[in-house]
């Protein structure tokens, strides 16, 4: 069973190489193979409920070898990541796109899954670089001038993050003599809080904050807004969430003696990020930019839960992040779907589309409620746990900021929804012929059905919130060291 843990990382790499060399039926092959990987990961996740799954590559045990570690949290992240990529590839298949984006989407997935499963900090760095290189190529696909301009900010800031990451790894190894998560955690807990070593911890906080757009956010709206809707869905769902996962894993396993210090720092950064997100969603009416600031707003709320360093707060952050990955990806896909179906020039103007697309309007409305974390949506249980944990650990004022941020984000989306579907038609739609509309109807229905399926999946998070939280709470992050060092 443990050998299967390499599947979510290995299959996207092999698929990426294969699809780069052979462009016929690439979507069919990629979707079918990723579906097998998805089923395998679901089986692994179910098995990990009883006992974490550990794979020592080459047979070398910790702390000397390279380990992959799959507990319920990491495997749930992998499952959602694969689902997102399958949906995006299906959309591209329906669009009959023939370009070089597929291999690099798969390489991003390999880097993302590797980040979720790796058990040492150097390989986490390697996986981050796999994502960075692949994402840079996807940003500049199309060779437009504005894409190159957007890529400069993205690459420069992420390269700075990579340098800081590498410096932190070097210092960490120099001080503690190991890079394995569990071994580092054991040695740090033995040493206790050392003021001189706090700088090392802060280096990693800076890196993971940059990767997840916590406070340092400028690269996100500039780069995401120039992407196609399908590629934007991949970026919105996966890239920032790897930073979130890395922060959770390192602060609950390695940097445990520094949690008291980190709690205040992350709390202040999370609050500032929520405020920035609120200002962004209010200011911008252009759909991609609004979605970008919705991502930033959600990141702030997630980190508010992490800042509590309580079981309830971490569980809430994980559950909310899983929902957010699905919701944000579907919002980008829905926007692209509407633009293509109705030939819109710009989605920020009044369109009056409700009578032409009632099913689409209903699905969009559900996702608007999901962003707000309303009851019966996938975001509700996670956000509720985050707020409960936050009020227990921090002054009430911070929780009030989070609640205001939630309603401001939902208000901005509701404003967009009402304008788009109930506003008067103002000529922003390109007038399509009956033949063109008929040709678009079938693929439109297929895509809308797939998004409806994803919507049901997000609702399952709410329906099964109690058992999900129960199993997440049973992970016991403090046993990570014992599981890895003793082989489970």
UniProtKB/TrEMBL annotation:
Keywords: Antiport, Cell membrane, Ion transport, Membrane, Transmembrane, Transmembrane helix, Transport. It comes from the Bacteria. One of its GO terms (biological process) is ATP synthesis coupled electron transport. One of its GO terms (cellular component) is plasma membrane. Its main location: membrane. The chain crosses the membrane at residues 26-46, 75-93, 100-118, 124-142, 154-177, 197-220, 227-248, 260-282, 289-306, 326-343, 355-376, 396-418, 448-468. It is found in: Cell membrane; Membrane. Pfam families: Proton_antipo_M. GO terms for molecular function: antiporter activity; NADH dehydrogenase (ubiquinone) activity. Residues 120-407 form the NADH:quinone oxidoreductase/Mrp antiporter transmembrane domain. It is a multi-pass membrane protein. Belongs to the CPA3 antiporters (TC 2.A.63) subunit D family. This is Cation:proton antiporter. It comes from Macrococcus epidermidis.
């Amino acid at each position: 069973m443990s050998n299967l843990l390499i599947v979510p990382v290995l299959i996207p790499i092999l698929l990426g190489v294969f699809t780069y060399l052979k462009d016929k039926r690439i979507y069919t092959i990629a979707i079918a193979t990723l579906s097998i990987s998805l089923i395998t990961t679901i089986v692994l996740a179910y098995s990990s409920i009883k006992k974490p799954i550990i794979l020592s590559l080459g047979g070398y045990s910790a702390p000397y070898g390279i380990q992959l570690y799959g507990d319920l949290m990491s495997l749930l992240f992998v499952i959602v990541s694969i689902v997102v990529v399958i949906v995006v590839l299906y959309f591209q298949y329906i669009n009959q796109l023939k370009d070089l984006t597929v291999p690099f989407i798969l390489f991003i997935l390999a880097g993302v899954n590797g980040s979720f499963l790796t058990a040492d900090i150097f390989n986490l760095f390697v996986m981050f670089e796999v994502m960075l290189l692949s994402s840079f190529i996807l940003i500049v696909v199309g060779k437009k001038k504005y894409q190159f301009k957007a890529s400069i900010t993205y690459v420069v800031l992420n390269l700075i993050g990579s340098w800081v990451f590498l410096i932190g790894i070097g210092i960490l190894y120099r001080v503690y003599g190991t890079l394995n998560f569990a071994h580092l955690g054991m040695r740090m807990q033995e040493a206790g809080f050392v003021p001189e070593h706090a700088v090392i911890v802060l280096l990693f906080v800076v890196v993971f904050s940059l990767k997840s757009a916590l406070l340092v956010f400028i690269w996100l709206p500039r780069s995401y807004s120039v992407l196609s809707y399908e590629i934007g869905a991949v970026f919105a769902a996966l890239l920032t969430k790897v930073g979130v996962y890395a922060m959770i894993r390192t602060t609950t396993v390695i940097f445990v003696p520094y949690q008291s210090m980190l709690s205040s720092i992350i709390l202040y950064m999370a609050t500032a990020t929520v405020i920035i997100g609120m200002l962004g969603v209010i200011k911008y009416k252009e759909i991609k930019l609004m979605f970008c600031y919705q991502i930033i707003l959600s990141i702030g709320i997630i980190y508010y839960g992490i800042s509590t360093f309580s079981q309830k707060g971490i569980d809430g952050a994980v559950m909310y992040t899983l929902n957010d990955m699905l919701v944000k990806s579907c919002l980008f896909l829905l926007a692209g779907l509407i633009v293509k179906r109705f030939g819109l020039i710009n989605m920020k103007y009044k369109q009056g589309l409700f009578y032409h697309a009632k099913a689409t309007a209903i699905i969009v409305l559900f996702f608007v409620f999901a962003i707000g974390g309303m009851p019966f949506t996938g975001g509700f249980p996670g956000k509720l746990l985050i707020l409960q944990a936050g009020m227990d650990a921090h002054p009430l004022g911070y929780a009030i900021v989070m609640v205001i941020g939630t309603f401001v984000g939902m208000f901005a989306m509701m404003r967009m929804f009402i304008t788009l579907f109930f506003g008067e038609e103002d000529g922003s739609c390109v007038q399509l012929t009956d033949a063109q509309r008929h040709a678009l109807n079938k693929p439109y229905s297929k895509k809308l059905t797939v998004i409806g399926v994803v919507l049901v999946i997000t609702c399952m998070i709410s329906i099964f919130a109690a058992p999900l939280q129960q199993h997440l709470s049973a992970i016991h992050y403090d046993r990570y060291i014992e599981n890895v060092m003793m082989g489970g």
